[in-house]
Amino acid sequence: MLINKYFEVEDDENGFPCLVKYLGNEKVVKVPEEIVSITSYVLEESDDVEEVILPEGLTFIDEHAFSECETLKKVTLPSTIKRIETEAFCDCPQLSEINLPESLKTIGAGAFSDCPALKNIKIPDSLVELQLDSFDDTLEVLEGNKAYKSIQGIMYNIKTNSALFCLDSDSKEMNILPGTQFIAANAFTFCQNLHSVIIPDSVAYIGREAFSFCASLNDVMIPASVKAIDTGAFSGCQKLNGVYFHKNCRTQIADQAFANCPMLREVTLPPNVYAYDEAFDDTCDVIEK
After folding, report:
1. Is residue 24 within 8 Å of residue 3, measured between CB atoms?
2. Residue 1: pLDDT band by 50, 70, 90 thresholds?
3. Which helix (H) or strand (E) holds 138?
4. Mean pLDDT over each residue of the chain, to the nearest integer
């Protein structure tokens, strides 16, 4: 379906309008108000766009949505935006101005990488997911914002109670700060020497691939507070041989959460823990109480 001749739109998986392609040649592109999300490479067929104005109601920008836009200089985001996915604006050499509203919850890996003109950007206090490589120098971007603090090798947003990313990938032990509610996607990915992590009884959500490929991780205790363990959270942990759930856990375990963990041979799930069919490897005996 075309809107205003230049905007190719399809319904997303929830039936809402998603912009899949801009077909015009204007330098300033104002996206129609009905658009709720934007998919990958939306400007692939437009070489001259310098400014994009996104509408109120837009919540999601998919990976690579505006990547490799060599002429893009300015982007205006709405107050409704929640997620900017992986490499959404990467490799935009002239991008120098973009606002990041307080509605924003997630900035994915490499979202603004290779954007050398992007200076003095203000990070909102609202983030629950941010990666060390979201910007060319994420630590410099965070400087001066009191919501973000490095504590014992982990970057936190203390306003959203989120553990965002690890600053010491060689650490053997990690004690996540008591009061933390969210462990962000990829927060400890590829911490190859990490063999012990303490998750406090305040964490409600363990994000996608949060501890994936922690090759030395031996075991993990899941406290009663955890409500969800997302896809791939502990995948690829080659030495993981024990996962222990608190008896009062009420937890959903997503597909592939513990995939490719060859040493994990048995797991006991309390009555209120639900695991999707492929949450564990076939070689792991899942015992449901």
Report:
1. no
2. low
3. helix 138-142
4. 95
Determine which helix (DSSP H) or strand (DSSP E) holds 263, and give its type and residue range. none
Q: Are 284 and 262 in contact (CB under 8 A)?
A: no
Q: Could you give the CA distance from residue 40 to residue 208 in angstroms, rounded to a whole number?
A: 20
Per residue in 121-130, pLDDT tens? 999 999 999 9
Sign for the pseudo-dihedral over CA of 62, 66, 68, 73: negative
Instruction: Compute the C-alpha angle 252/59/19, nearest 5°.
Output: 115
Q: Which of 48, 50, 86 is nearest to 67 (CA)?
A: 86
Cα–chain center distance at 144 = 23
CA-wise closest residue to 68 among 116, 134, 114, 137? 114
CA dist 177 and 154 (Å) reads 9
> Cα–Cα distance between 253 and 237 in angstroms, integer?
16
**Angstrom distance (rounded) from CA 57 to CA 46:** 24
Distance, in Å, from the CA atom of 45 to the CA atom of 120, rounded to the nearest integer, reads 30
Query: Average pLDDT for residues 23-47, to the nearest whole number?
Result: 91
pLDDT tens track for 141-158? 999 999 999 999 999 999
Question: With bands split at pLDDT 50, 70 and 90, how would you rate the model's confidence at 5?
Answer: confident
Q: Which of 220, 224, 280 is closest to 247 using CA atoms?
A: 224
Name which of 50, 64, 86 is nearest 20 in CA terms: 64
Q: What is the pTM of this model?
A: 0.94
